[in-house]
Write a structure and sequence with these properties.
The chain is an alpha/beta fold. About 30% of the residues lie in helices and about 30% in strands. The radius of gyration is 17 Å and the shape is globular.
Length: about 270
C-alpha cells in the first residue's frame, strides 16, 4: 500500500511566502507516510501578467524543488511553472511561455509535461473571459513518468475536460493521473469533483487533483476542494476547508490491476468515426 498526497494552496505573488507553505505541506505529507505530493497550478507564484517574469526563475525554482525532494525523500509533482523554453531547449520567441508540470524524484527531475489544452473561455465571474493562448504556448506531447509505486500520467487543470488525454495516458501505462489546477470558483463549483471522478472512471486510474483556493488579487477567485478519486471513480477524499491544506489517500496497485482485469475497458474500447 502506498500513500499519495494532494496539496491545496492560496498562492500569491510572493515566491518566498509561497515556499514557506510548500515546505510545511511537504513535512505534513511525509508525516502522513506519503510517497508523493502534488502541488497546484501556479503554486510558486500566482500573479496575473507576470508569467514571463516568473519564467526567468524557472531553473532556480526547479533546483530548489529538487533539493526539497532529496531532503525529504519524497516525489513531487510540481504543479505548474511558467517556462520560457520548450522541452528540447528551444526558446519561445513570441513572448509567450509554456505551462510546465515537473515530476521530481528524490534524485532528479524525471519528467516534464507542458499543458496541452489552454483555457480560452468566457466565464461569468469578476474576470469575465480568459485567454491563456495570449500568454502561453500549448504543449504537444502526453507524458507518463515511471515511479516505484506506479506510473504517473501528467495533466493540468483544463486538461481534465478532455477524456482523450486521460485515455492516452492510460494507454501509455499510467496508473495515477495528476491534475494540478486553478479552477475558477464558478467552473469549479459546477464541475471540479465531477471531472476528477469521471476521468478516474474513464481511465481506471487514481486521480489526484491539487487545487488553488481563494482570492488571488482583487478579481481572481479559485474554487479549491483539492480531491482524489479512485480507479472505480469513487471519491477518496476532498478538502472542503479554505486556504492551504492537504489530503493523503491510499493507493493499492494490486487492487487497481484486479479491477482492470475484471472490467477490461481499454480492451473493449471501440473507436468510432463519424
Amino acid at each position: 500500500m502506498t500513500f499519495l498526497s494532494a496539496a491545496q494552496m492560496n498562492s500569491q505573488n510572493d515566491i518566498e511566502a509561497n515556499f514557506t507553505v510548500i515546505e510545511s505541506l511537504i513535512r505534513q505529507s511525509k508525516a502522513q507516510g506519503a510517497s508523493l505530493i502534488v502541488f497546484p497550478e501556479n503554486f510558486a507564484c500566482f500573479a496575473a501578467g507576470k508569467q514571463r517574469e516568473t519564467a526567468t526563475q524557472f531553473e532556480a525554482i526547479q533546483q530548489r524543488l529538487e533539493q526539497l525532494a532529496h531532503q525529504h525523500q519524497i516525489w513531487i509533482v510540481a504543479g505548474t511553472l511558467p517556462c520560457p523554453f520548450r522541452p528540447d531547449g528551444s526558446v519561445i520567441q513570441d513572448g509567450r511561455v509554456r505551462t510546465a508540470s515537473l515530476c521530481i524524484s528524490p534524485e532528479k527531475t524525471e519528467a516534464r509535461y507542458d499543458k496541452i489544452h489552454l483555457f480560452d473561455v468566457q466565464v461569468g465571474d469578476a474576470v469575465g473571459g480568459y485567454q491563456e493562448s495570449r500568454f502561453f504556448e500549448p504543449g504537444t506531447d502526453a507524458v507518463v513518468a515511471k515511479t516505484p509505486f506506479g506510473n504517473i500520467g501528467l495533466m493540468v487543470c483544463y486538461d481534465l475536460r478532455f477524456p482523450e488525454l486521460a485515455l492516452t495516458l492510460r494507454a501509455q501505462g499510467a496508473d495515477i493521473l495528476t491534475a494540478p489546477a486553478a479552477f475558477t470558483h464558478t467552473t469549479g463549483e459546477q464541475h471540479w469533483q465531477l471531472l476528477l471522478q469521471a476521468r478516474a472512471m474513464d481511465s481506471q486510474c487514481a486521480v489526484l487533483g491539487a487545487a488553488q483556493q481563494g482570492w488571488h488579487g482583487e478579481k481572481r477567485q479559485t474554487w479549491g476542494h483539492t480531491g482524489a478519486a479512485g480507479c472505480r471513480g469513487q471519491l477518496l477524499d476532498i478538502h472542503h476547508a479554505e486556504g492551504a491544506g492537504l489530503i493523503t489517500v491510499p493507493f493499492d496497485a494490486a487492487e487497481q490491476a484486479k479491477l482492470r482485469e475484471s472490467m477490461p475497458l481499454i480492451q473493449h474500447r471501440v473507436l468510432l468515426q463519424y
